[in-house]
Specification:
Keywords: Hydrolase, Metal-binding. By secondary structure, the chain is an alpha/beta fold. The chain folds into three domains: 2-236, Ribonuclease Z/Hydroxyacylglutathione hydrolase-like (Metallo-beta-lactamase, Chain A), CATH 3.60.15; 245-352, Oxidized Rhodanese, domain 1; 361-462, Rhodanese-like domain (Oxidized Rhodanese, domain 1), CATH 3.40.250. Helix 3 crosses helix 5 (215-223) and helix 7 crosses helix 10 (324-332).
């Protein structure tokens, strides 16, 4: 028997490969199928099952393409109603995989169809659970992401409490927990950086698994402090439930190299959005007017999903040479399938064609500190970190303006004023500056190194835990 965790850091997502005696199962695959077919081919195994723990909200699963390519059966737990052929397993149903078995445990709560897959070895011993978004390391799944649920998040949290107490916690302490996500995912709020643990240890340290916790206490703990989920989450869940275009077709379309003239024409005709995916050092020096920066070398796909409201939005790309496929793939993972191509030759070709460019002014933290100390009342500092980060510690006098909600709250800013912008390290603030500049804001200064550098200056810092009021 072989178990392999296939972890994708930019999404903080874990898929799994299980193989026994020539048969394999894939749990919660990402959009692209080749990593899974390659693993099975290497082992000389046939993929028999594609096991989905639930209708995922934070990424588009590869179950449909993988099933078409391999003939594997897609399996969901009870109550799932997908718009395609799948086996809807009953609670407690046993699936044979080579010499091992997988038991389907219906564990509603994160969503009503959520299920956990219990792996038993050749001797029938419980070995591991693949818990999806039901149980994380040091956390549990949030109960507010169900597709078209008529239940409140409190109702779902109550179901989650019962699922954990009656299906998960009675299992042996040496059972290994393989969750669907790790730290950085918006599917929970307190996930650890570790991506596996024993159930026994989780019973000791996970706040949601404390044996004396009442259902009311659990519901309060799980629902308290939930940040609003990214806008693309419900849209991805619908795609996973209803179906989607083949990834190969999405990749073929998005991998089209465009000359400068073709790029400009596609931009005009399709009313496309231009996303510049270069690094945060290169972008501010020269970029295409009205393009926005979302660098590939960070949490690229989640930020595309958070900031681009329409999954149908035509997109044109500016990428570092050789990384075009990576960019298109990562966008497709979160349902952005309408990439029209990329600018061949990048910004160099654009400038060689005598096309205009713009830049964003940047400033060191030390220099900003001197300016702020001289005239704090007249210096507008936008902190685009999340509310929880701002509440933990921030520069006294800063305005919290989370990047997550920039499209919703942009009207609160004044285009005639100058803004200094920072985040934690400089990535999110540059995204914010690029969006604001594309929307007509003229005077924007990005603070290099963000709060990581600002906190080392003489600027006064403060913190509070009350709800943050925008502007």
């Amino acid at each position: 028997m072989k178990i392999e965790q296939i972890y994708t850091g930019c999404l903080a997502e874990a898929a799994y490969y299980i193989e026994s005696n020539g048969e394999a199962a894939i749990i919660d695959p990402l959009r692209e199928t080749q990593p899974y077919t390659d693993r099975a081919k290497y082992d000389g195994a046939k993929i028999k099952y594609i096991l989905e723990t639930h209708f995922h909200a934070d990424f588009v699963s590869g179950h449909l393409d993988l099933s078409k390519k391999t003939g594997a059966t897609i399996v969901y737990g009870p109550t799932a109603q997908p718009n395609f052929a799948a086996h809807i397993a009953s609670d407690g149903e046993v699936l044979q995989l080579g010499n091992v078995t997988i038991v389907v445990l219906h564990t509603p709560g994160h969503t009503m169809e959520s299920s956990t897959f219990l792996l038993r070895d050749e001797n029938g011993k419980d070995v591991a659970i693949f818990s999806g978004d039901t149980l994380f390391i040091n956390d549990v799944g949030r109960p507010d992401l169900a597709v078209k649920s008529d239940m409140s998040r409190e109702d779902l949290a109550g179901h989650l409490y019962d699922s954990l107490r009656h299906k998960i916690m009675p299992l042996a302490d040496d059972v290994i927990v393989y969750p669907g996500h790790g730290a950085g995912s918006a599917c929970g709020k307190n996930m650890a950086k570790e991506t596996t643990d024993t159930l026994g240890h989780q019973k000791m340290v996970n706040y949601a698994l404390q044996p004396n916790m009442t259902k009311a206490e659990f519901v309060q703990a799980v629902t308290d402090g939930l940040a609003e989920p990214p806008q693309y989450f419900p849209k991805n869940a619908v795609l996973n439930k209803m179906g989607y275009e083949s990834f190969e077709e999405v990749l073929r379309r998005g991998m089209k190299p465009l000359s400068v003239n073709e790029f400009v024409q596609a931009w005009d005709v399709a009313e496309a959005l231009v996303i510049d995916t270069r690094n945060k050092t290169e972008f501010p020096m020269d970029f295409i007017p009205d393009s926005i920066f979302i660098g590939i070398d960070d949490m690229f796909a989640p930020w595309v999903g958070t900031l681009v409201p329409d999954l149908q939005q035509p997109i044109l790309l500016l990428c570092d040479a050789g990384r075009e496929e990576e960019v298109v793939t990562r966008m497709a993972r979160v349902g952005y399938d309408h990439c029209l191509g990329y600018l061949e030759g990048g910004i160099t070709a654009w400038m060689a064609a005598d096309k205009p460019t713009e830049s964003i002014q940047e400033m060191t933290a030390d220099r900003f500190a001197r300016i702020f100390e001289e005239s704090p009342e007249e210096t507008l500092l936008l902190d685009v970190r999340r509310e929880s980060e701002f509440a933990s510690q921030h520069v006294l006098g800063a305005i919290n303006f989370p990047l997550d909600f920039i499209n919703r709250n942009m009207h609160l800013l004044d285009r005639n004023k100058a803004y200094f912008v920072h985040c934690a390290g400089g990535y999110r603030s540059l995204i914010a500056c690029s969006i604001l500049k594309a929307r007509g804001f003229k005077s924007l200064i990005n603070i290099c190194g963000g709060f990581d550098m600002l906190k080392n200056t003489r600027l006064p810092l403060t913190q509070y835990h009350a709800p943050v009021t925008m502007l």
